[in-house]
Amino acid sequence: MRLTKAEAGCVSFEVSQSDNPLVWNVDECFVDRQAFEFHQQRTRASTWWTATAEIPRQFEVSGLS
Fold first, then answer.
1. What is the pLDDT of residues 22-37, one digit of tens each?
2. Alpha-carbon distance 64 to 32, whole Å?
3. Rounded Cα–Cα distance for residues 35 and 32 (Å)
């Protein structure tokens, strides 16, 4: 979380647990597509991404053109 919040263009980044203890919600906002794409590249190269690779992800991107 610390690294994402420190990224240029990160407006907000919040992680919360849902009613299901195995499901987490991640809400993030970036100033533009470039900032979002940088974030995607950085996280996919991280130890965290590798360690959680087997966990299914569902996400929706909105507001980027």
1. 899 999 999 999 999 9
2. 7
3. 6
